[in-house]
Fold these 3 entries.
Entry 1:
Amino acid sequence: MRLYLSEGSPQGLKVLAAAGASGARVRLERVPPDGHVVPFLTHPRVPALHLDSGTFLFSPNAICQYFFLLAGKEHTDLTSQWLEWEATELQPAVSTALYGHVVQGKKGGEVLGAIRKTLAYIDQSLTSKTTPYLTGEAESVADIVLWATLFPVLQDEFCLPDELQALRSWFRIMNLLEPCRNAVESVLTPKGAEQFKAYLQKQPVSCLHSEKPATNEPEEEELAQRSLSEEEIAAAADAWAKGAAALPERWQPQSPILPVEGRRNVLITSALPYVNNVPHLGNIIGCVLSADVFARYCRLRNWNTLYVCGTDEYGTATETKALEEGLTPQQICDKYNTVHTQIYQWFNISFDYFGRTTTPHQTTIAQEIFHRLLERDVLLTDTVEQLRCERCERFLADRFVEGICPFCNYEEARGDQCDKCGKLINAVELKKPQCKVCKGSPVVKTSQHLFLDLPQLEGRLEQWLEQSWATGDWTANARFITRSWLRDGLKPRCITRDLKWGTPVPLEGFRDKVFYVWFDAPIGYLSITANYTAQWERWWKNPQQVELYNFMAKDNVPFHSVVFPCTLLGAEDNYTLVNHLIATEYLNYEDGKFSKSRGIGVFGDMAQDTGIPADIWRFYLLFLRPEGQDSAFSWHDLLLKNNSELLNNLGNFVNRAGMFVCKFFDGRVPPMELGTDDKRLLAHVTLELRQFNQLLEKVRIRDALRCILSVSRYGNQYIQVNEPWKRIKGPAADRTRAGTVTGVAVNIACLISIMLQPFMPDVSATIQRQLCVPQACNILTDTFLCLLPPGHQIGTVSPLFQKLELDEIEALRQRFGGGQTHAAHPSPGARMSPMPGAGSGLARDPQRAKELAEAVTQQGNHVRQLKTSKAEKGQIDAAVATLLELKKQLALAEGKAAEVPAPKGKKKK
């Protein structure tokens, strides 16, 4: 094998270290950074591994994996997860930090601050391990890959913050390994360091990190990273000039909504929420809210769209809740279905139909599918060992049992799945099982059950998956989880349970049983659609015309990617199978998990009691949507995002654009004479719009939201540079220029109102009322059009957002903190014994104080820039208010009283 490398190759460290650690015998070939390893490739591809078979491997991570496999070291699921996280999350973050350090000359503290959360994620994972490595007793390919990615930015483990002890220890161990030392000496030579710097200088920040900067007003060069061709500028100007005439006619679907031949027919489902509890913010973002954003986007694209969901009402969870509340299962379903419905209505979830699974249609369709499976011999009968509680005199369903996980030793594992390691388990495998009802120790007994023969269906499943993955969009975690099931080999899956509350099994010998919820529940998508329309089969037995999108959290993936598809494939009735499976990671709450029993976290029925509008909740949840890794809700971050991104950025721009029309032009959009700079702006906005569409086509919701914020930043900068409030008072040419800037700005505000619809429907509607945007304009195309032409009359303009105050947020944080506050980690507002030098007696948070100190410095510089450029007074006042707010938070984090001096001004004589 030949390994082609160049000095200073950013990925060279990992492949060399992996070769050494695995003992792979390779011949190293040095090539220039821009050399062509394979002549017919248009771009250089280094590193590259030329196998003896003649095949080339170009992916650095794939090369590393190949070396370890060659040495007989099999990858675990955890290893694969780390490699995927490194590629999607760690690499972009580190590259951006390196760009700031090597190219822009930022200091080490600034560089580490930029990736602090990423480093903390690794540290937290290492802390939970019993070994010093990421995945096992010895260094794995994941250890090598992550170390190599981090090395250029860390190099010396002592530069790591003190609180990241586990990460520091791991990094020190990796640095001392001989393969790692040899790789450093070989790649990062003095000449290699220069090559590495040259590589970074050629990369714009946007290429190194997909996320936009979160500042209020980026510098001009930050917004002008992407160069535009003359053709792009001219095309944007031509498209703009066509105006609303270029829009297609808005699609008005029939009622009920049914597939239409020749149109794009999109069927959207979100995982059916269990009826037995109140959904928390993590549940909402993981399923219904994410699906709602996509459904609203589809409608804006004129696609024929149906979005259905409903409560999952059968199974053990309902029986358990009924016992707790002293109600019948049906009464529990009726009670909580109403709760769910009200919560989703308040969050503006735009279901076309929200139903439930306890309906005659559910029984009919589930039993029909069961009979088809029975007729095609894809069901098995077997004796199952189950836990039986002699005190309760019944077999215990999975959720009536808790015990110690046999895989990770988590002490509160359920009888069907461990919430910590995520593995599916059988209740009899639990260590020290306990009946949840009486707390007694159950015994193992046998019972006859029916199984879906997954091994028999595995070939058909793999063939279908290959096609679905080739043509559809599955999130990385959905693909990974599905592959792990297939890699381990499918096993027969039990589809019946010894329960009373469920869909009856229509077969002699099993009539005292019901269908297992994970066989029955996905069929709820079909039965809920059947309750919506008698022609439900036109959606669910029409794969030729219908695209199916499933939205869920990652724990639901196996049932939607393996079990349910196998059920429908085995039934052989031309069912519509999922084309796009969209799964999120988990949203945590502050430093822990949501817990209704302990009063920790915000649940759906509580959000409206906070006084914070639904659209603010939607915005923040979507802003931190856990797409690539787990994320965490933070009250302080909510305050910052509301006051900076919404109030000072988006809201400030839309309000200014509308106010200029009202104040200077009597409420009518003025004539516009576009110059070169205006046309360039149109092209930049068009590019953001196209990226927005491309991201949402791939259901990258979080990144698409940042495109909207970027458009408003372009608008703010455009207004600030051209100063229409000054030009309107000047000569005729200046007044004409003021009109052009105002007209373009208010059209950008109009575009924002359309792009914002999927994310913040109420705010979008408010903007459109204020600007009097015609309903016919609510269509998303790939071009920025002049939808508010000269002479268009707008309405009354008023602010869109209100500032969130620190004391208000602190009160909410305390209210929803439950039992998570303890001596080691007191909340910022908690009283405790005074420490030396902390006269106020307030709890201190050194880490947060450090972050806020950096934010105060940045915001102070921003205020000074505004004053130097003689910006509009209102904008300066808003920036100063944000600065004072940050100083208050800094004072609290430092354990001081939150008293900040008022801004200085001229004394009155």
Entry 2:
Amino acid sequence: MVRFLLARPIAVFMTFLALMVFSFIVFRTLPISLLPPIDVPQIVVKVSYPNASPEAIEQNVLRNIREGLITLNGLEDMDSKAGSEVGTIRLSFNYSTQMELAYIDVNEKIDRIANNLPEGIARPEVIRINTSDIPVARVQVVPKEGVDEIEVSLLAENVLKKRIEQLPGVSLVDINGKKDRIIIVEPKEEEIRALGMTQENLISAIQSGNTDLPGVSVKDGQFRYYLRLATRVDTPSDIESLPVSAPSGAIVPLGKLANVSYQTQEMLGYHLFGSKEALVITVHKQAAAKMNELIPELKDALELFKTDYPQVDFELTQDQSNLLNAAISNLQTSLLFGGIFAFGVLFLFMKDYRLPLIIGVSLPSSLLISFLVFYFFDISINIISLSGLALGIGMLIDNAIIVLDNITRKRELGLDLFEACVQGVDEVMSALISSVLTTLSVFVPLVFLSGISGALFFDQAIAVTAILSVSLAVAFILLPMLYFLFFSKSKKVDDGEEGKFFSAVLGLYEKGYDLVFGNRKVALLFIMLLIPVGLAISLLLPSEGLPEIDKLDTTLEVNWNEPISATENRDRVVALMRHMEGGYEQAESDIGVKQFLLFDGENSIQQALLYFLFSSQDQKNEQVIKLEEFIEKNYPGAEFLIGDAPNAFDQLFNSSLPYYEVRWKDLAAKEPVPEDKMGPWLSQFPTSEWERGPGLEKESSVVFTLKAEKLATYRITVDQIQSQLQKLFGSFLITDIRRFGEVTPVKLKEPQTRFEDLLRNTQIAASDSAYYTLSEFVDFHYDDHYKNVTADKTGIYQSVFVTAENPDAYKSDFIKWGTDKNLGVSMVGQYFKDQENIKQLIGILLISVLLLYFILAAQFESFIQPLIVVLTLPLGIGGAFLVILLAGSSLNVMSAIGLVVMLGIMVNDAILKIDTINRLRKDLVSEPGTSAEEALELALHRAGQIRLKPILMTSITTILALIPIIFSAGLGADLQRPLVYSVIGGLTIGTLTALYFVPLAYWFFVSKKKLKEA
């Protein structure tokens, strides 16, 4: 094939050129994202039930929804949590479930259930979780001093949101911190009572004045007119002019009985930018959009907003494109330094500037053609697929160096240019194909991991497969053709003498070879002992998900653990911000209940999430200590967590599951176990290392008790008392004014005094027209009750989070503890998911090793020789572990990727060396006068000399290309540094040992059998 193609160099060149042009066109159409658009198999149902207790939300709302959703196809798990005024149900599905259909199914069932929910409750929100739901940036909208905040909310909702949604690539715009206008009616109690009236008269007058006659029409000859009541109200002055009838028959304008005015609706949550109240607009991109084009468009739009709306300040925060830019920057850096160092190393070893130029052409060509595969597999350019390309670049350079070195060596042996190109490629073709297949056999099976990990590895596996497959085509077709074209006019053939540098390196290798083969048994034993020692270093290494990154931003999650209002929560956060003022570059906070449509976390009035961006690491460390001291001093009961600000990776990989949770259900009562019983039971729990779960958390509350005997004596109904209490302590809605989609609620003013005073001062009319205070009929007492009610598929449960080092060791004790108390006990959590993933990973890696062995066995037609290749891998892994340990790094996702890169190169070198030994043995044995033993000795020696140059060139080129990352700063360098340590450690130590281990192992494990056959 190579001979046929080389005979037509112009046709081959033009074909490649056309392919690259087509690839470039395709590349420009590929979507650029932070992460692949993965369907996370979860749906969240959110319920908002104002002024309802957790028990009321569980009994009246969540239980009905759970019963209605239990029959969903593919439903794996269901958990619900009812808190004050809010409730959530999280549905987890099998990973094979089509989430588009599941989302439609959930919405249909919610519509059917809606009729069974309490009157007046808003339809539950259904949120589908997707990686594209992670916002790419946040726009801060800050009203200037004296500007009406409600007008700014309307501006954000009706103008800014729509203008941002029109930007190309934007899928959704979400807002938090909006303020709504309502009309408040504040009754004048003395005037009302003087006229013998009640609040009901006012309420009835307002409701009557806002009635409509939908669908009522009259016929007038050939015309038909639709009727509209002229008494409809629109403004507070309209309401004040409404007539109210007194029992005496007098008609009084409502304005004399109540003050009516526009006010801001009570907020359940706030957004702050710094210490100022603001709105935040989160921007979400379309799956097919290019993030690197969307963010500049958004920044341009913000500049226009600043000009068009001078009454508002705008800032862009938490720009997630920084991660993507870091990945692209790293790839560019790898290509740039890879090219520069490849040129330098090749020139040093090969003494000809044309060879580096050939590699300089082949690298970008392979990369560009790889994007064609992306197009056909519908894969976006994202951090995962880019890391796959980065994986393949090392192998790509490796293949190019091996082919060029072999062609050059053939020319030095005296072959003409054409034959040198043909035989140079043919000789290494099968070995290079095997090396690529072995790399893929290690990597591709990881696609079959379950969950998000498998979905992410799919993009990476396709990227690796694409670049390695293309690199083979380039190495077998384009490289020999370019070599032929570049050297066709060169009449001078290299005399085969090595340069001074490589001659010195070869001399060192020869001394080492003589030393090792002079003490073969000792040398083999020493190298074999290095394998367990190197692998044992892994026990000293800490492990984590992503590498520790020096981030300049951080988050503070705080739960005040007190039944405070959203306003008090805001005031505390403002005080904290002012205490920190001048210590941060940027700060924002979401306080209380979030208004985001896509927010799937816990909504609680007493919680807040704060974000800080600092100018330096030192400033960050200093201010974090200041934060801790402020909260501990002023709010000792608060729970808080300070951590790095989550990026898209963290949001995707962070599990909502606790690590190890012990759940129990009361098998008799089917309701939460009361605290007076639960306390003694928990004191008998099998381990003392535990924390209360959501269903055991407590908060203070006030319990009202009606005095039934007094109500009966004075003939006051329970409904009267409940209605009056609702007007006092609830947000009593009189009516809604609707105009062209805009809804303005009309509500009674909520008193701001203490509830004890309200009970003593508020009067209620009895049947004898006398007035009595509410405190005559209502008792109250303070009580600690459960803050949340938690439930799963089978009903209400309570739980604790076990923090012991080996929690599963207590499993039988947990079950016995529950059985003794008639509790059904079960264990759930991330611990079990991790165990399952580890078993899967071990199984998949075993399959990978078997695949690798079968491929090599077919390549070498031997069962023993593949074992030599497999045994070189622990040497590289041990070297990688040693450098990771010395550098103070950890085992993480990036260092694991580095191991795969390094093993791919080492496998390649070992395969080519064994292939060369086999070929030389075959040639030498056929020479007259050469015994089988002499042929083996010569083959081992010559193969080492022949393969020394490409092995060293590949390793040195890869190492030198990566070294600049160690000394770089920034997010991208922090991410890539563990990968660099793995590759440098593995290639440095692994290559040095493998240079001598392969011939040694070949001598001991292969020689005897082959000699007998000879």
Entry 3:
Amino acid sequence: MRIHTVTVEQSLASLKTAATGLSASEAGRRLAEYGPNHFEVVQRPHLLLRLGKEFTHFFAIILWIGAGLSFLAEHFDPGQGMARLGLAIVGVILINGVFSFWQEYKAERAVAALRQLLPQKVKVSRAAQIVEIVASELVPGDVILLEEGDFVPADCRLIEVARLRVNLSTVTGEALAKARDSAPSAEESPLHARNIVLAGTSVVSGQGRAVVYATGRHTEFGRIAQLTQTAGETSSPLQREIARLSRLVASLATGMGVLLFLVGQAMGLPPWENMLFAIGIIVANVPEGLLPTVTLSLAMATQRMARRQALVRHLPAVEALGSTTVICSDKTGTLTENRMSAQGLWLGGAFIARADLATRTQLVDEHRQLFANAALCHNVREIDENGKRELRGDPMEIALVDIGRQAAGDLDGYHVVDEIPFDTDRKRMSVLCQTPQGRMLYCKGALETVLDCCRFIQFDAGLAPLDPASRTRLLAAQDEMAGRGLRVLAFAHRAVDEGLSGDEQEMILAGLIGLEDPPRAEVPGAIARCAAAGIRIIMVTGDHPRTALAIARQIGLVRSEEPLLISGEQLRQMSPTQLQLALDAAEILFARVAAEQKMRIVEALKQKGEIVAVTGDGVNDAPALKSAHIGIAMGIAGTDVAKAAADVILLDDNFASIVAAIEEGRAVYDNIRKFLTYILSSNIPEIVPYLAFVLFRIPLPLTILQILAVDLGTDMLPALALGAEKPDPAVMQRAPRARGERLLSWGLIARAYLFLGVLEAAAAMAVFFFVLGSAGWHYGQALAPTDPLYLQATSACLMTIVVMQIGNVFLCRHPLRSTLDRKSGGNRLLRLGIASELALIAFILYTPAGNWLFGSAPISGTTWLLAIGCALLMWSLEELRKAILRRAGKD
């Protein structure tokens, strides 16, 4: 038995209760049986376990092995500096892990926000006595009292109603408050039944008594909470690419280390010297600075996005937003202002814009009764809030009171003496007012019901009989106003001798008022920018289809004559395949959708390979926000639940801010490729010295600690500077990157490893041999690790890599544009990065502490000049390569 389809008596009987409520003993028994009225939290791994995961992924395991081998080598062959190397590698692991760990709190915050939204206290009838209990103690069969301003604590079937209106937006997404009654409903779903109030919604006006039929996780609210908790974590494209890159590079490094260890063994190298070589190969191949550089780059991007009103809660969301191909946006509060206002009127047989009322004083005077009706026929309360009078109640009625008072002016002498409340069947409301002209009956409601109670219609020329032609004109006017996205109400009145004799009959139809939730002014421009950037926008709303379509046309989201409009009921009957095929439509809108349906749309888009962003502000949006690649919540109108489930929060609730955030996100991906090219370029000059050491039996040109000095020292700030580059002016004029495009593409590998890296390696080895040759060294001559000549030669090799990287950082600012092109703009962080490189290499080469820690020694000015000359040569060759590609038409 569906409780909303039966009578009050049958619903009470089905729950084995009465209108006076349960006894205390029976309530206690049911509490033990059904459990408390809160939803259960899905158990998640302990924080320490999640912390441990950050130090046990594949990338970290390779480094742990390297650190372990270093400590082992120090144990068996002390004094070679292997302990310092092991500590340095452990430090790298810790830095990477700590930077990633803080991202693991999303689910806990979402659940906490859901639980806090439920009310703490509720009035309940227990054995005919009204008592106040904690909401968690409610049980099925309890009879509760609801008043204006209350949150509904459980799913309930109404049994008594007095002008009750409920705001359902947090659960169903519908913008307007809905009237409720106690009559049986023929609706298929309880979500739309007029005799049902749901947990987590709020009472806008009126009073009621209701019997609880579902508590805790069995409520619609609890089911949404369960969906929010169990929705799988969606990794961002950047997270997947970094994971892929880490596995690829770590596997390559390990493979090379093991292979060349075997080669060294075959060549007869001493075991510990061979192990040192293998560890050096691994360390040289693994870009230890990559993860912290990515993290810090994303953190800087979040600061820039915050200045553009987009607060990022999870770092990977920055880049994920930039790769978005589809935005599923709700309507109310995101594309619109979430503020009802009266905009259009039909008076005297013609349409009048609200803005024209100020200049149409005669028209306003002629239709004063309509405006008095709007100002008086309502259930709005006026309260004093910190010395300021404010209206509280249904937003639609507040909007009508606003236009009524503005147009009618002074209403002294008018006061309501009686009321016929809004009723489902009547679809209208009436009030009896005492006025200076005598008693008046004012009525407002749906045109089709008000028409049947009217005998006359008011035109500018005066009253006229309400004949079939007039009815046709009125209905046509209503359709036209509804087509503009307005909610249309009719207003009628008549003089009354006393009481409410005659009820709502023989009235004069005064006119129509159309109300709208206006679109945000910035939205049409933002939608146009999304279209230029190749991003689809799909409206997903709980509102009426006609309203959704009208708003979509106003903001430029729909331009065709017949877009695909799918209702929640139609969606419910679609198979997964049918939904995915429907999503191929060029213009598609979803209306009257439920929470799980919004998440279903997101999942279908993900199955199609789309990168999906979802906007939302209500509890009902939380599962979809979490399921999407990127969840975007409204910071002002959004519920705590939506904010906790989202990755990005719009501080100004402005859809246009999403476009600014996408621009920043796209820049982030471009910038990561820039500093990835920069970081990987230095791997080749770090690997080549070890290969030459084994294959040609020369002194080792570069120590492992010197490699770490580059990867975690000199390269860090310049890489971050590349990560802070401003968005390219054309970034929003290109389509989202291809689904299969890799962060580490073959073009990037070729440029970093086979061109820039080779040039750097050649320069580093040339300068190394220059220093040795200048001092009379000859091939085959052994040098002790503490020999001053050896220390100078390795220092020269290190310095050359740093100098080459200084030139390289300018070359990496754009893959094709010349460094002399001013379109790239300035970058103060870049200058700071270069200064830090020079300061660090000076510390390493010219201070006793640097010499001791890194095994270095001061070098001559001639060596510096040779390294600078090599850097200029690399700059010239790379500029030539870019020029050839630009001429080939690839820019």
